[in-house]
Every structure is written in structure tokens, then in C-alpha cells.
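Field reference: sequence -> structure
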Amino acid sequence: MLSDFKYIFIWWLSIFFLSSLSLPLIFLLFQRFWDKGYIFAKTFSLFIISYLLLVLGIFHLTQFTLPYIYIVITIFATLNISLVLKKKSFFKTEIFNHWRVFIVEEILFFIILALWSYIRGFAPDIEGLEKFMDWGFVNSILKSQFFPPADMWFAGQSINYYYFGHFVFAFLTKFSGISSAITYNLSIATICALTF
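Structure field:
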């Protein structure tokens, strides 16, 4: 059981790290929200970083490998750090005044992530409905250097289907270093936690 929890923790830590990078921009965009938009940081970071990697991969400017992922993340972090340097007192005040809200939201996210991962643990099979296709798309993306990825159903062709959602979780899979056989169910739990 503890070995399984390790994967949940690494997955959550990866999401937490990426979402922390976008907090400066999120705080500026959602100043009027009671939580300063903290809860949107996860979705925002995953969307922006994944989208940048996808577009760069489509134009063959970067490959979908860890070194290039780290470069894109570093650029994203640098832009957000520059915002902090410009408005230090603003960010210091926001964090000081709302840190309890941030902790509660993070705990709720982690609890739902862990709970749904636990529930998925009773039926982790990747079968039924579109599960095999989803897992296949993620694996095709993971094996691709550029995009669109190869179509697992039609040899020699690229995926002719919307796959950005699969790409987001393929990116998280590669970034976290966890096998896609495990992250498939963690991805489902993540969608549940983000929705909650």
C-alpha cells in the first residue's frame, strides 16, 4: 500500500511544483477572487506548459524530451519570477494574508486525488469504454519526439483526433517519471480532484 502511495505523492508533488510556478501571474489575474485564484494555478500551469510544448513540437522547434521540457519550464518560471521581482510587496502581502486558504485548498486537492486513486485501485484495469484508446494515445505521445504523434490504430499515419487532453497527462507522466500504466489511473484521479 505504501509503495502505491509513493506514486500518488510524486504525482501530486509534480503538479504542486508546476502550479507553484504560475502563482505570480495567477495572483495578478485573479486579484478579486477570495483565494486569489490559487485553485486555478494547477489547471493554468498544466495548460500553458503543455500547450507550449505541443506547439514547439508541431513546428519541430523542440523535441518532446525531458531536457526540452525542463527548458520550457525554466522559461515559464523565469517569466513568473520576474513578476515577483517587480511587485515584491504585493506578492508578500498576498501570501501572508491568504496562506491558510492555500493550504486548505491544497489539502482538499490532495485528499480527493488520493481518495480517487484509492478507489481506482480496486479496478485499475485499462479496459472498457475508451480506456484502451486513451492509454494508447498517451503512449503514442510519450514515444513521439514531434507532433502529431503516430496513430496506434493506423500504421504510418498520425493521430487524426483531438489529443491535447492526452498530451497534458503524457507531459505529466514524462515529467514525474512514473510509468503510464500507473499514471493512467492517476490522471483520472487528477481530473476528479481538479473538478472538485
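Note: The chain has a mean pLDDT of 94.
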